[in-house]
Write a structure and sequence with these properties.
With 493 residues, the chain is mainly α. 76% of the residues lie in helices and 0% in strands. It has helices spanning 2-26, 31-36, 43-70, 75-91, 93-102, 109-116, 121-154, 163-213, 218-229, 242-249, 259-267, 274-305, 316-324, 327-365, 371-392, 400-424, 430-449, 465-483. Helix 12 crosses helix 13 and helix 16 runs antiparallel to helix 17 (430-449). The chain is globular. Catalyzes the sodium-dependent uptake of extracellular L-proline. It comes from Croceicoccus esteveae. It is a multi-pass membrane protein. Belongs to the sodium:solute symporter (SSF) (TC 2.A.21) family.
């Protein structure tokens, strides 16, 4: 079985590296080409790239695992994300595509903020770049944990005598392939591989639950089995509290502040193409989320019906892939999981690299660095961030959903209110922007450190993005009103 699976995975790896080489020949001669693909992404590529880099291993590991363990009530996270993603395409996408060009052809989010608020340019670039690198290192580690879990579950003992050896092999192999095409091909390679990976992911997510549902007894048997576990297993309100509902639905707030997602808006070929990309992206997301819900629920029913123990609910996708399909198909499905993991890792590495290159190296060390030098420095930065993430991901007991939740909240709170108001509110000031950036990140970090996301004032925990987002928004508005001078700035069309 392992031979056929390995063949499929090897073909997948070769395809990804081939795309990287193609992109290297097309668009790595300048910083704009390496970091944004020359701002010429096709709407479909931009849409699926944004979706695939967004969902990551969370879509095939974290969300199905939560549904497997708890039931349909966990779907509120997916519902919140869908609403947030749609709002992001409406509010942020067209404005960011236009204004990053109007404000000095900014290539990174920190550079855009600096150009938008020149009175606080250096502080905004440095602070935002630090936040980008800090949280993306954790976020990248979450993806590598997913790669490690894949190899522990699928190839136990093949690369060594212990699970830890398999785990670290999975991490190094995942990181190595991502580094190969990201360092070589830059943003275009990341976007094209994301497009292919997004297609693979949606096929796998639709195929897997359909196979279970068409098995013995059909959908009725699946539903009956789940209700046998808990009569309310298929209820959206099972054990749901107001705080729990808000914590789940407010995951959608994070979209406004995710640099690896909104950078796709900057790269789409025109403002007019944004609506087309939105329709493609939201359709992909809707089908993918339904598939992920199906994997978790049908997977739980299948495991119960066949008396299959599962120590880690986040590996249900891997279990179904191994037990339901021919080894070659299993390899394809595991490639879908790797696709989800790698699409996000590559995006995060590139955005981190762009911040280190444009907002540190070119800002402080080599202001007049050539385009070729900047591209090469960017490649080195990709490697450095990846190595730091590998160190964080060494713990095999790490939970993908937990790591993603922390990083998602950090970005959402720090950049979400900042990006929305920077694009839409003329009276926002540079001091207000800096206050919101620092406040949002600080509140999230303190909230996690104090454990209030697990238990707040002796009761149920509150997801850290909620207090962080609110605090950042209030800080921006209050400080901007206190420091505003003269008439409101005229926003670009």
């Amino acid at each position: 079985m392992q031979t056929g699976t390995l063949i499929s995975l090897a073909l997948y790896f070769i395809l990804m590296i081939g795309i990287g080489l193609y992109a290297w020949r097309k668009s790595t001669d300048s910083s704009e080409a390496y970091l944004l693909g020359g701002r010429d992404l096709h709407p479909a590529v931009a849409a699926l790239s944004a979706g695939a880099s967004d969902m990551s291993g969370w879509l095939l590991l974290g969300l199905p695992g939560a549904l497997y363990a708890t039931g349909l009530v966990e779907a509120w996270i997916g519902i919140g994300l869908f609403i947030g993603a749609f709002a992001n395409w409406i509010i942020v996408a067209p404005r960011l595509r236009q204004q990053t060009v109007d404000y000095g052809n900014a290539l990174t989010i920190p550079e855009f903020l600096a150009n938008r608020f020149p009175d606080r340019a250096t502080a905004l670039r440095v602070v935002s770049a630090i936040i980008v690198v800090l949280f993306f290192t954790v976020y990248t580690a979450a993806g590598l944990v997913g790669g490690g879990k894949l190899f522990v579950t699928s190839f136990a003992g093949l690369f060594g005598d212990t699970g830890m050896s398999d785990y670290m092999t999975g991490i190094w192999l995942t990181a190595g392939v991502v580094l190969a095409y990201t360092m070589v091909g830059g943003f275009l390679a990341v976007s094209l591989t994301d497009f292919v990976q997004g297609c693979i992911m949606v096929v796998a997510l639709v195929l897997m639950p359909l196979v279970v549902l068409t098995g013995d007894g059909g959908p009725g048997a699946v539903a009956q089995t789940l209700r046998g576990i808990d009569p309310d297993f298929l209820s959206l309100a099972n054990g749901l509290t107001i705080i729990g509902f808000l914590s789940a639905i407010c995951w959608g707030l994070g979209y406004f502040g995710q640099p690896h997602i909104i950078v796709r808006f900057m790269a789409v070929r025109s403002v007019a193409a944004v609506s087309t990309a939105r329709n493609i992206g939201m359709s992909w997301m809707f089908v993918s989320l339904l598939g992920a819900l199906g994997v978790g629920l049908t997977g739980r029913a299948y495991a119960v019906q066949n008396n299959i123990p599962l120590d880690d609910p986040e590996t249900i996708f891997i279990l179904l892939a191994q037990t339901l399909f021919h080894p070659l198909i299993t390899g394809f499905l595991l490639a879908a999981l790797l696709a989800a993991i790698m699409s996000t890792i590559s995006s995060q590495l590139l955005v981190s690299s762009s911040s280190l290159t444009e907002d540190f190296y070119r800002l402080f060390l080599r202001k007049h660095a050539s385009e070729r030098e900047a591209v090469n420095v960017g490649r080195v930065c990709v490697l450095l961030v990846a190595l730091a993430a590998i160190v964080i991901a060494r713990d095999p007991d790490s939970q993908v959903l937990g790591l993603v939740a922390n990083a998602w909240a950090g970005f959402g709170a720090a950049f979400g209110p900042l990006i929305i108001l920077a694009l839409t509110w003329p009276r926002m000031t540079g001091t207000g922007a800096l206050a919101g950036l620092v406040t949002g990140a600080a509140v999230v970090i303190v909230w996690i450190a104090m454990g209030w996301n697990a238990a707040f004032l002796g009761g149920e925990g509150i997801y850290e993005i909620i207090p962080g987002f609110v605090a950042a928004w209030v800080a921006i508005v209050l400080v901007s009103r206190a420091t505003a001078r003269g008439p409101a700035q005229r926003m670009p069309a």
